[in-house]
Structure formats: structure tokens, C-alpha cells
Design goal:
This protein is mainly α and about 140 residues long. It contains 4 helices and 2 strands.
């Protein structure tokens, strides 16, 4: 079977005109190989990237409205998502739930870090909870 047919054409305008012809069977073989590719790693990477992007403003808004006292809700949600990931059989869904759970647990740390960023003046302070923050030196 000829996989690749290369023809060399010489003309007055272009001395080295090379034309490459792929047989139809090669196109079909490439298409079948494309269908057999595993996209789960790429899908999981995109889901992880999006979840990290979603949790960033959630942490900022949560600290602004509730302060650091909302950390138990992140802990409960994180544990619930991780337990749910253990019970789901689909790999992508299980991974997405696990990443969501770990993002919730990581948000506990970020809530306290966000409070420090607010105290430094990097983010706006909720005027209703001014007493919860240290004064700037």
C-alpha cells in the first residue's frame, strides 16, 4: 500500500514545485486515530482551571460579606464534594468533584489570607465589620 505519493513537477516559473497526494485511506486512518484519542486529561485540566478561576472571586466576596467566620461552610462543602467524588464512577465527574472539594478546602486558607490582604489595603474593607480588622500602622 502506498501511503504517500510525492510527485516532482518542473515548470518554467517554478523549478521545484513539489505536490504531495495523500490517499483516501490515509485520511480515514487519521480520522479514526483522532476519534480514539483520550481527551479526559484535557477536559480535567480545563475544569480545574475554570474551578480555580471561579473560587477566586468566591473567596473575595465571602471574606467581604462574612469575614473569616464562613470557613466552616467551606469545610463542610469540601468534605461533601470529596465524599461525592468517591461515589461517582465516571472519571471526569469524579475528578471534577474532587477538585471542587479540594478547592473548597483550600479556600479556608485563602479566606484568612484574604483578611490579611484587606488589612494591607489591597482589597476593600467591609465598613460594617471594621472592628474585625487590625488598624494599618
Amino acid at each position: 500500500m502506498v501511503i504517500l505519493d510525492v510527485t516532482l513537477r518542473l515548470s518554467k516559473e517554478n523549478c521545484h514545485n513539489i505536490s504531495i497526494h495523500f490517499p483516501k485511506a490515509l485520511y480515514l486512518q487519521c480520522f479514526k486515530q483522532y476519534l480514539n484519542m483520550h481527551f479526559s486529561g484535557l477536559i480535567i485540566a480545563v475544569i480545574t482551571f475554570l474551578l480555580i478561576g471561579v473560587f477566586h472571586p468566591i473567596v473575595i466576596k465571602s471574606e467581604y460579606h462574612f469575614g473569616t467566620r464562613c470557613w466552616p461552610m467551606f469545610a463542610i462543602a469540601g468534605i461533601a464534594f470529596i465524599l461525592a467524588s468517591l461515589s461517582v464512577q465516571d472519571n471526569i465527574a469524579s475528578t471534577a468533584l474532587g477538585v471542587t472539594g479540594c478547592s473548597c478546602l483550600w479556600s479556608i486558607l485563602e479566606i484568612f489570607e484574604q483578611k490579611k490582604r484587606v488589612e494591607k489595603g489591597w482589597f476593600p474593607m467591609n465598613p460594617k465589620r471594621k472592628g474585625e480588622y487590625k488598624e494599618k500602622p
